Amino acid sequence: MKINHKLALIVLFLALISYPGSFVFSQGVSSDELIKNAKEYDGKLVTYTGEAIGDVMLRGEFAWVNINDGENALGVWMGAALAKEIKFVGNYKTRGDRLEVVGIFHRACLEHGGDLDIHAQELRKLGNGRVVNQRLNMDKKNLSLILFGALLLIWILTLFRSK
Amino acid sequence: MILKPRLEDLKIIGFYLGKIILGLAFTMAIPILAGLCFGELNPALDFFIGIEISVFLGLLLLKICHTDKDLNWMQGMIVVSLSWVVAMLLGAIPLYLSGHWKSFLDACFDAMSGFATTGLVLVQDLDHLSYTHNLWRHLIMFLGGQGIVVIALSFFVRGFSGALKMYVGEARDEKILPNVVHTSRFIWLVSFVYLALGTIALGITGIFNGMQPLNSFFHGACIFMAAFDTGGFSPQSQNILYYHSLAYEVITIIIMVLGALNFKLHYHLWMGNRREIFKNIETSTLFVTIIATFSIVAVGLTKIGSYPSAITLFRKGFYQLISGHTGTGFQTIYPQQFLVDWNHLALVGIILAMSLGGAVCSTTGAIKMLRIGIIFKAFKEDLKRIIMPERAIVIEKFHHVKEVFLEDRMVRSALIITLAYIILYGLGALVGMFYGHSFLSALFESTSAAANVGLSCGITNIAMPVALKVTYIVQMWAGRLEFMSVFTILGFLIAIIKGK
């Protein structure tokens, strides 16, 4: 039994060192942390969370999705099948899906012209995006009406003065 | 004895300023139309308020300061420099109302950055900004690149002799056609033709990159305006990195270079005189300085091993360099990467490129190629004088549309403007250092602001001190107007205080 325990520990240890970082960075890192300490994280497995923004840009069997964590947006390269899970992307009228990506971080990706990016291995949707209801801002409406009245008044005064 | 300005001077300045404000107000109708088309009512209201305030102010100035008199040189210069300040204040109103700028000063910073085609930004949550506001951000680059006064001259002012004074005051010392109004209209013709071609090229590339067609063409138009006017804004927070596309980078490089060329050169190319591009002193100087500064960047990046291959090094290094040299400010790296991934040598290469700029009578800022070429020719002439026998007559010539003999007054003028830019870069760096930034990063950001570039190493952010924001605004303004109008308004203010 003791030998089996030792063997299991050795196997576990080997698994840990052959996949460095997967445990260290599984808590999630911010974009700021990744950009500022890019050399430390380069080639490591990271967990990154944020909102999908802009466009899901399909490129053959893959896709680029830019994910914004509130500090910066990072480009995430993923399989087209994973990208299909994304229903909402953030823009003026919508809030994008909130995603958690587990993938390999590249400080200067050789495959993508030196871009700082993440190659996703897993994608989890933490929250669904939504269409943002845009109500007319009454303060702005009133202000524009008051200014319009003032302009009209100037125009009328000009007419009187010219007569 | 300094003469105190008369009331008549103030009336003339006010009257022409009113005309330019009205011209600017009408440009706000474009985002209103866009807002209505995109169904963005609140953003459209922001511009409605902006247009109302502008028309109100413009009409008020026209009424109070009504005059039939023409501008003299001093008044023309003051109208120009004040126009840019007023444009900043009025252009910032709709931006501030959107709620994406933390303070009115931040909105003014971005408005001046846009009009002066710089590209430094303080906008928050850009990825959720409306189409309407994004269009305005890029439109003000397009308007500022051509020149605010050029707009007024082209569309709102009928030929009057004061036009030339305002045209020159806006750092455009070359006329393409005999009449400045015709010159202004030619500048717009060139810009609109390229706008159509550039938008189509970028729009189609965007669709191939996987973008939605509407978004793709909207981005295409915005990116074109920012690239051709060497501005550097982008609809997304990641700037050009958002697109992850080599094709997009290549097309924007072509547009940036086109924007950095002299409009006079464009005119000759349009007229079929293609040899001019090879003979012109500006294009040859630009070619040499690009190679020289890129060599510095490449050596720096190679030494530190920033990129895993020569191709990636070239793609990243050359893009930031061309963007800096043409005064655009597009980035395919994050601002912080300049400080963490690039070494000092590479940064110096970029700073040098930014400080030089593109051609005169283009949309770029900075010292500019004609002046660099003239200074180089003057050095060459002096060296010849030393080497050759005393009796030898040394004559230096250069080609700029026609053969021009180098004269001392040209060298003097080129050296004065160059010196003024170096002082402006240095002063901004001192303020940056005062707030705790390293010499190189402070110089980088200062040069970027004063040369109207827009590359950032991360200093420009909402948390930076108010004094630094104001410093960069003044640098962008003075750098764009090339000092003459700024000096005139300073002199005018002194005359108001001390004059008799």
Task: Tell me about this structure.
The complex is a heterodimer of chains A (163) and B (500). Mean pLDDT of chain A is 86; it is low at 16-24. In chain A, a hairpin with a 4-residue loop joins strand 2 and strand 3. In chain A, the strands form 2 sheets. A 5-stranded mixed β-barrel of chain A has the order 1-2-3-6-5. In chain A, strands 4-7 form a two-stranded antiparallel ribbon. Chain A is elongated and about 100 Å long. Chain A is built from 5 helices and 7 strands. Chain A has helices spanning 2-18, 31-36, 38-41, 80-83, 138-162, and strands at residues 45-59, 62-68, 73-79, 94-95, 98-106, 117-127, 130-131. The N and C termini of chain A lie far apart (110 Å). With 163 residues, chain A is of the alpha+beta class. Chain A has 2 domains: 24-131, Nucleic acid-binding proteins (OB fold (Dihydrolipoamide Acetyltransferase, E2P), Beta Barrel); 138-163. Chain A is 34% helix and 33% strand. Chain B is mostly helical and 500 residues long. Chain B has a domain at 1-172. Chain B contains 22 helices and 2 strands. Chain B has a two-stranded antiparallel sheet with strand order 1-2. In chain B, strand 1 (397-400) and strand 2 (402-405) form a beta hairpin. In chain B, helix 5 (104-115) runs parallel beside helix 21, helix 6 (131-146) packs parallel to helix 10 and helix 14 crosses helix 15. Chain B is globular and about 65 Å long. Chains A and B meet through helix 2, strand 1, strand 2, strand 3 and helix 5 of A and helix 3 and helix 15 of B.
